[in-house]
Write a structure and sequence with these properties.
2 copies of one chain form a homodimer. Chain A is an alpha+beta fold. The longest helix of chain A is centred in the last third of the chain and has 28 residues, at 535-562. Chains A and B meet through helix 6, strand 17, strand 18, strand 19 and strand 23 of A and helix 7, strand 17, strand 18, strand 19 and strand 23 of B.
């Protein structure tokens, strides 16, 4: 499994596959989710979603809704308690005030004793709208004569994007300029025009990726309770409990000591469960002095959560005859919908960040339209730009009759190479991933595969820089000698299992003796959000330090009792003993009792770890896919898939493989199926999972996973980020495979049968 | 208010009265208690209580109960999952197996969808009993020809008593001897017979105190959930979450990592909410794979919880003419009911522990009867023995025509004096308490009072050694600069308010910036049980250390940023600044952001404190009461009450006064009203709060509180234990006042009109 992994032989737990402890409950349906929560006197809220994309609100008449038995209140923006309103921040427009900015925007909240009554009454709320012209296409939105999508344009104060990526020397900034621009970014290096002159081949094109939904199985669920002591408790299926606490406190004007956030089981997040309606539900609970639950339906969630943006990449690239990239010029346009928040920075960094290129010019534009505002989806922005970049690279290779693998290996970034921002890469393993795929059976068979008519093999890479955020943890000894670890990060990918492995490794314990708990924001030591692929990389370090601290405390007591210096002691399965002296030992159970019992003589063992990681550990993935295209129907079948990813060190290879398979599957979905479709009035046409097509088991081939391990400088045991990179290459890899199979290229994802037939010239516009 | 309290001027928060943060919710009925908890699929259990005091179970027929719609199961001892059964440990006899040992003992559990159905069906369970002779009176139980109360007699392994008192050199031990003895204790010093010879006066008597219930307003409530991952969660209104975890884990054979205990709001405990039915409810949840709730009714709780024991003290004391005690001989008999657990050790220590006495002989006997087994009630055992000791001392003073105050001051123990076990006292303030009462208006008026017919003034002292148990805490900085503290101790007396004061003091913050949370056993750093009056004394030290640790971390960063050595920095209201340089400062809010934000450069601030206190901080209370007795009805009215208590240092004087008033009120109840009455077959006659009389506001006079502060060596800011001592003197003080008023002494509490008329010779046996 491991390419660079002999170091794991030195370990007992880390590096070994461990099934996730939460898996049996999930697959048997016994996991408790936020929607299972019931509080006494709880009200159920349904939001009134605007049925127009752009309008002025002229009046709201709730009388019919209020007449429904069981309805307790209808709340509009005017009824909310005083709070920090910000027209340019989606989460600080709790309910629309005067202007509706997107189809589905909440304009009122109906609260009733049960959710069916509130849903029924919701439809009886009468809102008078004065319709305004909607702006829907980002390119049209940029035209000087375009209507304005919204009154004001203001840069985002402190967005979620930072959670996914952290760079030095580059910041989203606002500029005067064309219409409807939320923010722009420019990166320049060298002289692109000179670079194109040096090129033996130049390709140019416009690539489009549509708005896609994160499609977590569990829609957003939030419960809020404002108690009689003035404390607001919020249960949310959020990936970011401390972030929610901070934002809710700021928005509602409370100190953080008066807000408690409990992250309930996250039934899928993928970046879409950071922070959205928590302040609204909190404000409703404060207003009504009763607990309030918001459980969104699939439709509501697709209408009014934060999907991933539509993106247009205008890309021109030049390559020398030997396959060296000479110039890259890109214009990256993200449609951010009605509020700022598109992943412009990562998109612009990464389009120039996978390959060495002496001359580049990247311009990024975040454009307002009257569509739902966007959020993160696993490596936000990366798959959009990789779709263009990796397609163009294949086109260049083909033009110059070079091998796509060789071309990538020749140009792939390495340690020290600069990002477009100038920031140099730390140790990375992009080349090692490509080499691993090159050795894979799929890639070795590729000439054989291509001999079949309508079959092709595509290759693409993708990567993600990863987030950095401080983290802390504690590790404590229980009275019976078992060990508890406490963290503040929501476990969305099995990270608590990895933490248990780390603690068991440090203390040399059976894994069963360790329990890891995610606390709420009142009890957990701080950890950043579970986003940016960084949980194991950052919190894992804190857990390791905390376990080492606990070990030191244990050794200090043992040294005193066993009358031996700490360096002569060893820890084995819950026993501290003097090396070579089996008679001189102290058990964790004894120590647990002595540090907890009446009259106990030792302080409780409380290990602490706290870190502020400053060096990223980017991860790359290379993927190859085999497809067969039916030239008559345009149908694409993916036959096989190989994914290599550099994870630094796989603390739990089983979980790492799961991430690689999951990301690849999502990449396949983005390549072939997923697309939020809007009509010409900005109405979402497919707000359900019948019309919005996700990949099913029938679509997904066996996925071969190859774990590559180029140790990171800073991560625990050399681990680096894992979660996000595997989603990135999919759309490009499939497009390259399709081009390889049929000799025609599709520039727009998803690669539907219609688009393929179009590319084959079998249907015309 | 303070006698020795000028030190408090140096402080900003500690030593100042602060209202309890939880008070408004409690008095407005908005506090959430365990019984408010509802879990999906939850079953409600009612226990089948044996209607006989002693019997063999011949058979159980549940068919009629099972036929009731809504009943899901009837569980008997045979149906429970494998567990650690111990016939001599009440908590390890989950349900009676073969032998019923007390009236009310649970023999089966009926589980239904609602509590009314389970209560109805409970009465349909048919249990066949073969009745056995019950043993009810402890003196009769000791006779060689008495029937045995139970098959086996075994010393208690590790009981709750230790939580209330910790001594060196003395342990409850089992002996061969008379019938029905659970354990015995003997302490000897000097030569008592010689001491009696030296005495100018000797008094002798037998004092009786009855079984009393803790009478918490909220009966026991336990909810257990055994989830699909094999984890048992227990919500319990317990004073001792970690103790419950340890005991449940041991009893049900689980590691502590698989048991989580959440202490819900304790609606009164007073020692009676330590640990009782948690393992049973946990076992039921494991058996049925559904959440189970047990909410006891008042009757069930009075029948089958753990009230305070009936006690008989045979005491003989000698005093020299100058008022010096010369000899004390005592036989202390605790009726422990059907299982061991009476407070024999503290009773025997304290009867010889309030006064210097060169010659003493104390024999303690813990006796089995067929009554409900006993538990702790605020300073368990102390009021029983103080009733005898302080009555006898007054009798001696009267006999020798000495002043009761002078006699007490002459003999009162001081630092260095030995307990009966030989253990010397640390710094204590018994004399200071007596001196404080001597100066009180009540005591100064006493000759004036006594001039009224049938009025009298009584004086008594009492004390408690206090528990010792390791404790830990963490103090963390939030993103907005506010501060959280996390502890593991249930807050039953306002201790979290005191902890907030300590944190605010150390960090020099407004109190509003600090939030203290009691975590569950998964998240909280370990703390011993909230019993033994030790929470502020032990956990408070850990909190102080944790705050100091956080302060050090803050100063280290500030020193670096402000380029000034830590000793030149000061903390003021959430700002770190260079002394005298207002321009050079760093706010907690900035530091909070920098240690939590994306790319934050500092590790989260996580202060940690852990202690293993080894030196007790005993607290004494002296109380004087004024009574008027109606010689025709025997009715006693308490007219005024003064209580002085040495608390070392009152961190929150308001809470301390509340404790002193509450304890005095309970002492008044024990003196005049409280008594669990049994018939000759061992059936409790008054299992309700109409027939079991508690003091009401009509009975309680204004209570003057005098806080005495003799600093403890080890407590935070010199604080010592507070909660328990104030209950101890009450019964003796009232008895002494009644004797003072009517010239006749009552040897049996409560001092009912009947007993007073009897003492006056107005009614005969």
């Amino acid at each position: 499994m491991a390419e660079v992994g002999d170091v794991r032989k030195a370990f007992r737990h880390v590096g070994k596959p461990v099934p996730r402890v939460d898996a049996p409950a999930k697959v048997t349906g016994r996991t408790i989710y936020g929607d299972d929560l019931k509080l006494p006197r709880m009200l159920h809220v349904k939001l009134v979603h605007a049925p127009v994309a752009h309008a002025r609100i002229k009046g709201i008449d709730a009388s019919k809704a209020l007449a429904v038995p069981g309805v307790e209140a209808v709340i509009t923006a005017q009824d909310l308690p005083p709070h920090r309103y910000d027209p340019d921040n989606r989460t600080r427009v709790l309910l629309a005030r005067d202007e509706v900015l997107f189809y589905g925007q909440p304009v009122a909240a109906v609260l009733a004793r049960d959710p069916y009554t509130s849903a029924y009454a919701r439809d009886l709320v009468e809102v008078q709208y004065e319709e305004l012209p909607p702006v829907l296409d980002p390119l049209e939105a940029l035209r000087p004569d375009a209507p304005l999508a919204r009154g004001s344009v203001q840069a985002l104060e402190e967005g979620e994007v930072g959670g996914h990526i952290t760079v030095e020397g580059a910041e989203a900034r606002k500029e005067e300029g064309p219409r409807n621009v939320a923010s722009t970014i420019t990166f320049k290096r060298g002289d692109v025009e000179q670079g194109f002159k040096e090129a033996a081949a130049v390709v140019e094109g416009t690539w489009r990726t549509p708005m896609a939904h994160q499609s977590y199985i569990e829609p957003h669920v939030i419960v809020a309770d404002y108690d009689s002591t003035g404390r607001l408790s919020i249960w949310s299926s959020t990936q970011a409990p401390f972030h929610v606490r901070n934002e809710v406190a700021k928005t509602l004007g409370l100190p953080e000591t008066r807000v408690r956030v409990i992250s309930t089981e996250v039934g899928g997040g993928f970046g879409g469960k950071i922070y959205l309606y928590e302040a609204l539900v909190g404000a409703l609970a404060m207003t009504l002095q009763r607990p309030v639950k918001l459980t969104m339906s699939r439709k509501e969630d697709m209408l009014a959560a934060t999907p991933a943006p539509n993106c247009i990449v205008q890309l021109k690239m030049g390559m020398k005859a030997d396959g060296t990239l000479s110039a890259l010029k890109a214009r990256v346009i993200f449609d951010t919908g009605a509020f700022p928040g598109a992943p412009l920075l990562p998109g612009c960094l990464l389009i120039g960040g996978f390959y060495k290129c002496p001359n580049l010019e990247i311009e990024g534009l975040e454009v307002f339209t009257n569509k739902v505002s966007v959020g993160a989806l696993r490596a936000p922005g990366a798959h959009n730009v990789a779709f263009a970049l990796e397609s163009a690279l294949d086109m260049l290779a083909r033009r110059l009759e070079l091998d796509p693998m060789e071309v990538r290996l020749k140009n792939a970034v390495e340690k020290g190479d600069p990002l477009p921002s100038g920031q140099p890469y730390p140790a990375i393993g992009l080349k090692e991933c490509l080499e691993a795929v090159a050795k894979s059976q799929l890639w070795q068979r590729r000439h054989e595969i291509r001999a079949h008519p309508n079959r092709g093999v595509g290759l693409a890479v993708g990567g993600w820089l990863g987030g950095l955020q401080p983290a802390s943890a504690t590790v404590t000894l229980n009275a019976d000698g078992t060990v508890n670890a406490l963290v503040g990060a929501a476990d969305i990918t099995g990270t608590n299992t990895a933490f248990a492995q780390i603690v068991a490794e440090v203390l040399n314990l059976p894994l069963e003796m360790v329990r890891v708990t995610t606390g709420d924001t009142d009890s957990a030591p701080y950890a950043g959000m579970s986003a940016g692929s960084k949980v194991t990389f950052t919190v894992g370090r804190a857990v390791k330090l905390a376990a080492e601290d606990a070990k030191e405390q244990i050794l200090r007591i043992a040294s005193q009792r066993l009358e031996a210096p700490p360096e002569e002691l060893e820890l084995v399965d819950g026993v501290v003993r003097v090396r070579g002296r089996e008679d001189k030992q102290l058990t964790f159970r004894e120590l647990g009792r002595w540090s907890t019992a009446f009259g106990g003589r030792y302080p409780p063992i409380v290990g602490r770890g706290a870190v502020a990681p400053r060096l990223q550990a980017p991860s790359f993935s290379a993927q190859a896919v085999e497809v067969e295209v039916d030239p008559n129907t345009g149908q694409v079948q993916v036959l096989s898939w190989v994914v290599a990813q550099d994870v630094g060190f796989a603390i739990n290879p089983m979980a790492v493989e799961g991430q690689m398979q999951g990301g690849s599957t999502q990449g396949l979905g983005l390549a072939l199926f997923e697309e939020m479709a809007y009509d010409e009035q900005g109405r979402l046409l497919n707000p359900n999972l019948l019309d919005y097509r996700l990949p099913t088991t029938a679509d997904v081939p066996p996925i071969e996973t190859i774990i590559v391990e180029v140790p990171s400088e800073d991560g625990p045991y050399g681990a680096r980020i894992v979660g996000e990179p595997s989603i990135v290459p999919g759309p490009a890899a499939v497009a390259n495979a399709v081009a390889d199979a049929i000799g025609a290229r599709v520039f727009q994802a998803p690669l539907t049968p219609e688009k393929i037939l179009h590319a084959l010239g079998k249907i015309k516009d």
